[in-house]
Amino acid sequence: MKIDNPFESGHIKNYLLLYASIVVIMVLFFIATTLFNDIKDVDKKVFSTQMNENTKVLVEDVEESIPKFKLLDTTY
Q1: CA distances for 40 relative to 29, 35, 43, 64, angstroms
Q2: How many angstroms from the chain centroid is the CA of residue 52?
Q3: Separation CA 67–CA 69 (nearest Å)
């Protein structure tokens, strides 16, 4: 089975049309998303920096807890 050179057989026009149609479709989708996508204003979220009582107790418990496992003094 012999493969024809697309430049000589005229098939290159079909490849270029396929490529151009894909580019046109991509441009149309880009234009559609920019025109019809309404960007809403998003309110800035403000987080509380104060620690409540439950969090303070948990932090103290973690600091006072003794680990179950002791690491080795030397590494191998």
Answers
A1: 20, 14, 9, 47
A2: 34
A3: 6
